[in-house]
Every structure is written in C-alpha cells, then in structure tokens.
Amino acid sequence: MRTCYLDVRVDGEFTHEYPAAASDPQLTDVRYLGSIHHHHGTVRLRLEVHHADREIELHQLRRWLRNCFSPQPVAFGAMSCEMICDWLHGKVVARYPGRAMEITVAEDAFVGATVRYEAAQ
Known about the structure:
Blueprint: E1 4-16, E2 37-49, H1 58-68, E3 74-75, H2 81-95, E4 101-107, E5 111-117
Parallel strand pairs: 1-3
Antiparallel strand pairs: 1-2, 2-4, 4-5
C-alpha cells in the first residue's frame, strides 16, 4: 500500500507557561518555565493526500498553516507542545477532513513534541 504525505514547515514566535513548574518540588531545575516565556518555534505538518497530482497545493497549505499562527507572538497560555499539536489538529481536520497527519511543534530548534493522528472515519 502506498500513502502520500505533504510536508510543510513554518517558523514563528509563541509564548506559553508551565504553571506547575513554579511550585512542584520535582521541577525545581525548570522553575523558570512557570512564568510566561518566549520561544522561536517551528511547526511541521505532514498531511495525507489521496492522490499524487496536487490534490492540495503545497504553497497554499504552507500559507494557510502560517496564518494559523498569526498574529505573532501567539500566546498559548498553559498549553504544552503536545496541546498545541492538538489545537492545530482541530484546525487541520476542519479544513482537510478524513486524513492522517503528523504534527511537530519544536521550541527553539532543540526540543518539542510530535503527535501522530489517524484519519477520522
């Protein structure tokens, strides 16, 4: 079986916080994450397409993805990278239903999270 995926990336700025880090004794080494802090982030979307002849145009998909993160910096409150992936998944499913996808949110090109989603039936 053959499955095709588009692969697009966008860079941007966002803020968030990890409130538990401010008081949890297990998180003393990352206590600074308890305050709102800034990241230069990279978001990668791998989106299933149903045929190989430009079913979804790459440049249009990338522009749409970039617009999901406007205006910048995007304030994500207490959302983790995994939660940001889930937030974006909701937007992608609303626009492109019935597709498997993988979403990565990276902080400052060093750490991040990747979530894989099966196609909703």
